[in-house]
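Annotated sample (chain length 127).
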Amino acid sequence: MLEKIKMSRESVYITNIVKYRPPNNRDPEPEEKEACAPWLYEEISAISPRLIVFLGRHSMNYFFPDLKISDAHGKLVKKKFKKIQTSHFLPLYHPAAALYNGGMRETLIKDFKKIPKILKIIESEEK
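Output written by the structure step:
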């Protein structure tokens, strides 16, 4: 998907909200997300991204608990947080969802293609 939007893997930083795979690959528990939060905030601080792209509902709901991925995917969300420099967030479906549901693949690709456009908007706002 990065190739489709002419971005290299070296130009993005990928991390997870929970820093280990929960047993039996189950969804992470709220306590596990909270336990890993300091590490996540350190990563975000060190990287200082212009845009944070959430891949799936778990990461999105950590920051935006009231959003539903089915409503929010592909839409830029702006919000200021004390511990995060950027205020630009883009929720997307998790790529694994497209593996399980072929119909989601096109939606994910369409949403992914918005990333370069959003980065240009952010860049123009920064000037």
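Annotation: The radius of gyration is 15 Å.
Annotation: The mean pLDDT is 92.
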